[in-house]
Amino acid sequence: MLATLNLERNKIGDFGAQCLADVLRKSKTITTLNLQSNQIGQDGVRYISDALEHNPILVTLDLGYNQIGDIGAQYLADVLKNNKILTKLNLNVNQIGDDGAQQLVFALSENTTLLTLALIGNNITPQQMCDWEDEVERIELYAHYPSDCSPDCEYGCYTDSGSD
Q1: Does the model's pTM come out above 0.85?
Q2: CATH code of the domain occupying 4-148
């Protein structure tokens, strides 16, 4: 049985994401999916998000180093509101700004299963992270390296001790 599917750096793009979403909808064994560095944009993540609505088993999704932007973040936020399976989501370096990140954070108020959300290397302001601290205190949220953080608020700062 295939439990982990690592397609990192395969340049599947939006079309490949669409094909993969068809497989993901039917999968009863894939618990970890790594799609890091695959040139996936907002259209590709829309297909993957739709598949997540029908997938009862995926617990880890790595979409780091793609180009989903704020619209793609919104697609994932919509899924997170109802998803009760996913525990780890990596969206590092995805051109997500404050608007997209805010949608993800708001979705977490309805989601009690996501434990880790990685947003490092996006266009999220440190002050925005501090504003969300109370809303997402139950999860590990990484959005900035320590050099980008304010001494007044270190919430959302990545440290080696808290993430892999």
Answers
A1: yes
A2: 3.80.10.10
